[in-house]
Each structure stands twice: as C-alpha cells, then as structure tokens.
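Notes from the 1:1 (GR / supervisor)

We went over the backlog. Supervisor wanted to see one worked example end to end before approving the batch request, so GR pasted a single chain during the call. The sequence is below; no edits were made to it. Supervisor asked that the structure be written out right there so they could see what the output format looks like.
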Amino acid sequence: MKKFVVALAAIIASISAYSQAQLHLGARIGGGAAINYQKLTQVQSAEGFKDAVTNDKGWELNAKAEALLGFGRFRFGYRFMYLRSYVEPGNNPYGPLTDFDRYSVYQNSTRTHLFGHYGVLEIAVINSKFFALTPAIAAGGFHGYTVDNSTKEHTQLSRVTKNRFSIGAELNAEFKIGPVTLMVGPNYYLFNQQDKVNTKWSRYTHVIGADAGIRVNLLGKAKSRSSADN
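Structure output shown during the call:
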C-alpha cells in the first residue's frame, strides 16, 4: 500500500510539472426518468418508454458533490451522489418472497433512497478559455433503503441484497468564468443489486436525466486548450 501511494504521488508530481494543476470542488442537482429492467423488457417503442415512466411514476431526483484533481484536459477524483427514486416493480417470477422485507423491496410500490460513492474520470474534448465540452465516466457502489408506500416501513438494502454496484456516463457543457465553472448536461446511471438468497434475481435500474451545478477551481484559473498545449 505504501509503494502504491508513493508511486501515485510521483505520477501526480511529474504530470503537474508540465501542466497547471487544478482542484475542483463542485455541487449539482438534477432529475430524470427511472425504470427497472423488468419494466424495460415490456417496452416496445419510444412511446412505450414514455408511457412506462409516466404511468408508473418512474422518476428520480439527485444531488451530487465532488472533488476532482485536474491536469490539462484530464480530471479524476471522487463523487458522492444522493438519489431518490420512485420505481414500480415489474413482473418478476424469481422474486424471493421469503420475508416481509423482501416483499417490500421487490414487489411493493416503494420510494428508494440511494447513497452512491464513485471514482470519476473526465476528459475535456473541447477546452477553450470560456467553454469546455467534457464527457465523463463514473463507477462505484451504493447503499440505501426503501420506504414501502403502503406501510411506510423502511428496509435497508444491505439486509437483503449484495453486489450493489453502479456505473454512469455524462456529457457536460461547461461555461468558465475565472475559477468558477457553470455546468449543465445529460447523464445515464445504472444501479445493480442481487438478492442474497436467490441467485436468479437481480434488479437493474436505469436512470436517464440531466443536472446542473457549479464548480470552483481552488488552485486558480484552468488553462485553455491553447495554453495547455503549449
């Protein structure tokens, strides 16, 4: 572990010698559509997807906080995401109804509160003085709980599920004003969890939406493409 930390510090030091380091702290809020895999298999068209989301009240709201270290066009770091979703369960013949908590999580109408932790990598494909277009990928895990809409009972996901991982992709338009960056863009996140008892059951929840927010570069003004390339 010590060797890994030393090697990582050496890499960061060598990169920073050739480009101005950036330390971005940011926060964003957003929302969109949420639909699980079982419902998605029943969708036959784009209009069917709209109906599934609208009729089943498949929505999500989220808030993100992040800290990213940047060198030139590249940024990497940590992101925390809180996500609240309302997703109706699909018809799942493998739903393991071994106790009330599982019945609540898998078969009842619930609100889900998730707390995600991600590693993030971003690359600014366009990077001018006042604007950047930046694709990003994220991968990590999550924990949380569900609230049964009928009984109001809370069920911790860690009690009934395992292998909870999440991946995401974003495309952010960034408007830079000195060290401050205003951001807006679409995103997609996948949340997976598997039952601890029944290996045939997994739930994939797809979240498609957009968010907006702000970042501040604590180490000063980021270099534009022209200056970074020089």
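Supervisor's comment: The two ends are 36 Å apart (CA to CA).
Batch request approved.
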